[in-house]
């Protein structure tokens, strides 16, 4: 339950940050929040708060309040981002362990097969790979050639 609440909070913060996302200005300008380290996999939202503030016609007081809110949000998000980084490292390690386990299982399974069965297995793998590639190619072709309103 706690993890779900943390995840919901991250999603909410991401969505609120995305609401302000436009064209990016360098993070060291006064209108952008401080740069936060993000995992390489995460998309860094673009920010041009000055443009948004101008479009909304914010007063100087509102601009200052918005800046303080952004800074507060960034400070609040820092420990959550750190937790997320740690969890991503843990997930990466677990994926690596799972991959190694699968490889080991594959080797052990192939060790119990006869030469004839190994050849048959390789043939089956090649057929399945070919079928997969054909399906993927057909799917991509259909997706690329769909009418714009169906995408």
Proportion of residues in helical segments: over 70%
Shape: elongated
What is the number of E strands? Answer: 0
Estimated radius of gyration: 25 Å
Q: Number of helical runs? A: 4
Unreliable runs, pLDDT <50, ≥5 residues? Answer: 17-34
Spatial separation of the terminal alpha carbons: 35 Å
Percentage beta strand:
under 5%
User: Roughly what is the average pLDDT, rounded to an integer?
Assistant: 79
**How would you spell out the order of helices and strands?**
HHHH
Provide structural commentary.
With 151 residues, the protein is mainly α. It is built from four helices and no strands. Residues 17-34 have low confidence and may be disordered.
Topology, pairings included?
Layout: H1 2-19, H2 49-56, H3 60-111, H4 115-144
Keywords:
151 residues, mainly alpha, 4 helices, 0% strand, elongated
What's the quick description here?
The protein is mainly α and 151 residues long. It has helices at residues 2-19, 49-56, 60-111, 115-144. It is built from four helices and no strands.
